[in-house]
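User: Show me a protein chain along with its predicted structure.
Assistant: Here is one chain, sequence first, then structure tokens.
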Amino acid sequence: MVIAVCDDPALHSSQNEQDTRYFALHSKLPLLDAGSPQEALDMAKEGFEISEKTAFASHIAPNNKSSSWESQSETWPNAKSK
């Protein structure tokens, strides 16, 4: 399981600071902090791999700026069914 939450840690587009890095710290979940749409895609795959190996959820937190970008990303091929 991958928990994906978009943060706004510096109040760029919201009235209150939104920073779930502290949630990941206190829940002792791995945190993957994406800085671009391509990184978010790659980290989502990595998050699922971590989750499968550890049986715990992982947490991906792209920031507000990287979540509102538009860009082309390289996708990875579908995994074969087991």
